[in-house]
Amino acid sequence: MSRRARALAALLPLLGLSALVVRSELAQRGEALRLAIRGYDPRDLISGHYLLYRYELDWQGESSCGSEPPDSAPALGRHLQAGCCLCFTRQGDSLSSPFVRQLSCAEAEACDDWLHSEQLQPPQRYYVPEERAQELERALAERKAAVDVVASPEGTAAVGELYIDGWPWREALERFSPAP
User: Fold this and answer.
1) pTM given for the model
2) Rounded to an integer, what distance in angstroms lies between the CA atom of residue 42 and that of residue 65?
3) Is 150 in contact with 31 (CB distance < 8 Å)?
4) What tens digit of pLDDT does each residue of 136-149 get?
5) Which sequence spans correspond to the domains of the chain?
6) Which of 15, 101, 122, 126 is 20 to 30 A from 59 via CA?
7) Surface-to-core class of residue 127, CB atoms within 10 Å of its CB (0-12 exposed, 13-18 middle, 19+ buried)
8) Handedness of CA 28, 169, 167, 121 (dihedral sign)
């Protein structure tokens, strides 16, 4: 094998890794949307090292793609239609849950932020350390939870920090855990 071929063979994995890092960084550009979540399956919120959840969206306005969310369950994700996009309208600061409506992806450019509806289909997974899993499961069942989501220009979601009662989850567990 020639010297040039060996150098290329050594460089190729590094270029691939670099491309993945750049892609990840680009996906997280933009201002995060703080979306409320709820445990997906109360019998098994923690599956392995992952917290299972679904989004509780604040449906406002008329949706022009797919079915309308039922009034009795406006926050549940079961009415998200494949091939549609979710249009987010920000309300003040990023800590407020944005208004959401479902529309055709051709109309999504006019939204503050948008995602393909498949990006929010339940169940979603959030990695948690095994030693904190039971605390997080209890906190998710007893308190309000949310995650930061950044919408890429292509309509894909990058999930950021998990919040419990408005606090990053590590701080919340320290703050709300009973003293030994």
Assistant:
1) 0.73
2) 31
3) yes
4) 888 888 899 999 99
5) 1-30, 31-176
6) 126
7) exposed
8) positive
